[in-house]
Amino acid sequence: MDRPAKISVLIPVYNVAPYVGACLQSICSQTLKDLEIICADDASTDESASIVKEWMAKDSRIRLVSAPVNGGISRTRNLLMKHAGGEFLMMVDSDDWLEVDALERMYETACACHADRLVCGYRYYYEDEPDREDFFLPGSGTDADKSWIFCTPDTIGKVHHGTNGLMIRRSVVEACGRRFPGGLVCEDMYFHYVTYPFCKRASIVREPLYVYRKRAGSITEEFTSGYSLKSLDYVKVALLILEAWKEDGLIEEYRTAFLKMLVMSVRNVRKYAPHSEQKDVTRTVCRVLREEGLYRPQEDDGRLTAREAKLLKSWLAGKSELGFSYYWKKMRKRVPQLFRH
């Protein structure tokens, strides 16, 4: 039986004809050669699949699987994982690309640290400002003299949960049995939180090895507009994570981690969703906290920040905790729009 490739690079493809060639070029040119490169075409209506096939003729490591109908990013990623056989899975979007030694650096780090999951930094590429330099480097989840951390309830929120630039051991994903949830835009948060407890060690590579293309009209741009109903998915995903942890017998161990993640999710809804939706969010959170008995001040407050504890107490009491500063920030964002013609 053939030894599995070191990394399965998983690329969801949908109407990205102008970009997918550059993505594949960056992966085929990697200094680490022991790869399988799997593209999944989500019923594209442009030339994306044809471009992938042209690259297949150039590089035998590339495979293409196709969905019969368009099903969205989560279903496409799940299809990719179904066909992957590598030691590690690496997620790359088809309009992004990797620095030439990205996979070698990450795989060597994984081996050196015995890590089950790794994340790396981003370099952002702005189509309308190609000379702009902008980076995202993952936070200090590890000590300065240590390149890895144990995967525990205390560290789950310290590791960036984005899927792009994520490398995870395939055996962990199989042991977990969880996949990306369909129809939600925070699918990467779900995947991080449900797979993390099955990992033993995580490593953060604080270098911009992944190049993230920022382009007009993207889902992310719409999501962060401040008036997007899609941002409500933060709370929907948080509740799905709660159910998964309950099913896996993890909720008691990860209860405080869930509370921190819930606070983060609601604050993102506050930031991005229309004000008209805020009361329903508060009612939902209040109901869940009461029914599940999740917040226990005497046990939790020592591990929560003062702000987190204050918000949880207010939501448990059925209050939205939207003060003057919240409305002032909203008003400042709206004022320029009121004067546009």
From TrEMBL:
Source organism superkingdom: Bacteria
Membrane spanning residue stretches: none
Claim: Repeat is one of the keywords in the record: no
Domain Glycosyltransferase 2-like: 8-131
Pfam families with a match to the protein in the record: Glycos_transf_2
Alphabetical keyword list: Glycosyltransferase, Transferase
Alphabetical list of InterPro entries matching this protein: Glyco_trans_2-like, Nucleotide-diphossugar_trans
Coiled coil (residue ranges): none
Keyword flag Secreted: no
PANTHER family found in the cross-reference section: GLYCOSYLTRANSFERASE, GLYCOSYLTRANSFERASE EPSH-RELATED
Name the UniProt record assigns to this protein: Glycosyltransferase 2-like domain-containing protein
Species annotation: Akkermansia biwaensis
